[in-house]
Amino acid sequence: MSIVIDLFEKISEFIPTFQTVTELEGAVFLRKGRHKTKFFALHKVNREMRSLKPGMYLCWPWIDQIVTIPRKDQVLDLRSQSLLTEDGVDVIVSGAIAYRVRTPHLAILNAEDVDRNLSRIALGVITQFINTKTLEQLRNLEALRCEIREGIKEASGKWGLDIWKVMITDIGNTINLRLLSNTEDSSLLEEE
């Protein structure tokens, strides 16, 4: 009996399936064999690519692949990071980015993981921005948000995203505990 089950499982790997694309998703259909795209050239696989509208699609195993990405508004939380301002003040900054996918095929083919890549780009832009400003200049949060949003838009432009809001959720002074623990001032930590 187990031989029959194993045989059925092997055969089912070659039976085409139907995949559904909803109105809240963007999708790209990839078929091996015809065109070489920039993204999949890294994998040395030739593929045909086309964007899909909402609906049901027949997908052949081993030949076809349908990749989906949400098109609804997304909010990405950025981890807190300790940064040094131009005037040498150590601050901690955290934030969030609100975005939506405008062009699904660009997001799927140019950014393997949109959230991870957008988070890394945003943290890098925030770091560059904070390092060139003094603590007094950081008090103008609206200018801070606008400059960071423009930097993120520029850096992620080829991913087909609409970045519509950047929020700075926390910005403040911090004590760098690593520096204190390596000096004679480590007694300050023990007293608190």
Give the tags:
single chain, disordered C terminus, three-stranded antiparallel sheet, 2 domains, alpha+beta
Structure description:
By secondary structure, the protein is an alpha+beta fold. The chain folds into two domains: 56 residues, no CATH class; 102 residues, Tetrahydropterin Synthase, Chain A, CATH 3.30.479.30. It is 34% helix and 35% strand. Strand 6 and strand 7 form a beta hairpin. The C terminus is likely disordered.
Quick rundown:
The protein is α+β, with helices and mostly antiparallel strands. The chain folds into two domains: about 15-70, no CATH class; about 75-175, Band 7 domain (Tetrahydropterin Synthase, Chain A, 2-Layer Sandwich). The protein has helices at about 1-10, 40, 105-110, 115-130, 140-155, 175-180, 185-190, and strands spanning about 15-20, 25-30, 45-50, 55-60, 65-70, 75-85, 90-100, 160-175.
Give a count of the beta strands, DSSP E runs of length 2 or more.
8
**How many H/I helices?**
7
CATH class of the largest domain, named Alpha Beta
Distance between the termini: 70 Å
Strand order of the largest sheet: 3-2-5
**Content of β-strand:** 25-35%
| CATH architectural label of the largest domain | 2-Layer Sandwich
- Radius of gyration, in angstroms, nearest whole number: 24 Å
Task: List segments where confidence is low: pLDDT < 50 over at least 5 consecutive residues.
Answer: 34-46, 180-192
- Biggest sheet statistics: 3 strands, antiparallel
Q: Summarize model confidence as the mean pLDDT.
A: 80
Query: Given the helix and strand composition, which structural class is it?
Result: alpha+beta
The run of helices and strands is HEEHEEEEEHHHEHH
Superfamily (CATH H level) name of the largest domain: Band 7 domain
Integer tally of domains: 2
Predict the CATH topology of the largest domain.
Tetrahydropterin Synthase, Chain A
What is the helix content? Answer: 25-40%
- The gross shape turns out to be elongated
